[in-house]
């Protein structure tokens, strides 16, 4: 029992925490992207989806109860993911002979380190901005342009379109999605290895799965601002 409770202090424990929280976050990113594709089905379908999220589990659960549970789980996953990543970097630097090993492998790991470390920082900042932008509407909108959901008003469709009509914000979104793609590819692949799913028999399949997840998420997410900027999707 003591070993389990102190597992988070070891590098293996931190890697497991990072892998499990990464799995939660990847699942959310895929689901979130899939749900947003309903934008292409028109405002009625997309607004029904947005409203349905707030009534998940009804009538057993009340309005937004499960949605807030999901939000709290995601917040915890983000915090633990960032903590474990930071702790592993610090632990690696402090390890005996760490600088020597870093020098020897820098050429091989610099690309992964860049996309995971600095890309991760960009993604973390983007999450904060994304919530302030499309969830709460406190940035990126003209006065009275954002329709706060609730009370039968679920005009999320127009919220998203007006939000992406801001060109700098859409470009920031697109650039971040590219970094998210690199982060996902390396992260999903590393997650398989950490959880012991890296046998030679399945390596090709798992690497291919990581590529597919990365491509689907990036292309799907980028399609939303591009569709708005090109006029494929317009406000109603």
TrEMBL record:
GO annotations of cellular component type: membrane
Ranges that cross the membrane: 16-34, 68-90, 111-132, 171-192, 204-233
Alphabetically ordered keywords of this record: Membrane, Transmembrane, Transmembrane helix
InterPro entries per the UniProt record, alphabetical: Cytochrome_b-558, SQR/QFR_C/D
Name the record gives this protein: Succinate dehydrogenase
Natural source organism: Candidatus Viridilinea mediisalina
């Amino acid at each position: 029992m003591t070993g389990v409770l102190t597992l988070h202090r070891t590098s293996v424990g931190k890697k497991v925490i990072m892998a499990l929280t990464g799995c939660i976050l990847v699942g959310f990113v895929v689901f979130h992207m899939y749900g947003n594709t309903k934008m292409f089905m028109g405002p009625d379908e997309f607004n029904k989806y947005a409203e349905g999220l707030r009534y998940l589990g009804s009538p057993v659960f009340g309005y937004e109860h499960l949605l807030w549970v999901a939000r709290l789980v995601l917040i915890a996953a983000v915090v633990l993911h960032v903590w474990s990543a930071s702790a592993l970097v610090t632990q690696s630097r402090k390890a005996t002979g760490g600088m020597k090993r870093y020098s020897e492998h820098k050429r091989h790991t610099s690309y992964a380190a860049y996309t995971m470390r600095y890309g991760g920082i960009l993604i973390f900042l983007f999450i904060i901005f994304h919530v302030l932008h499309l969830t709460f509407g406190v940035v990126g909108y003209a006065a009275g342009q954002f329709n706060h959901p609730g009370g039968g008003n679920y005009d999320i469709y127009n919220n998203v379109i007006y939000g992406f009509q801001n060109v700098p914000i859409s470009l920031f979104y697109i650039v971040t999605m590219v970094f998210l793609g690199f982060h996902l590819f390396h992260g999903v692949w590393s997650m398989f290895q950490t959880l012991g799913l890296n046998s030679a028999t399945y390596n090709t399949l798992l690497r291919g799965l990581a590529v597919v997840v990365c491509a689907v998420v990036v292309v799907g997410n980028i399609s939303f601002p591009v569709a708005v900027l090109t006029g494929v999707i317009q406000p109603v």
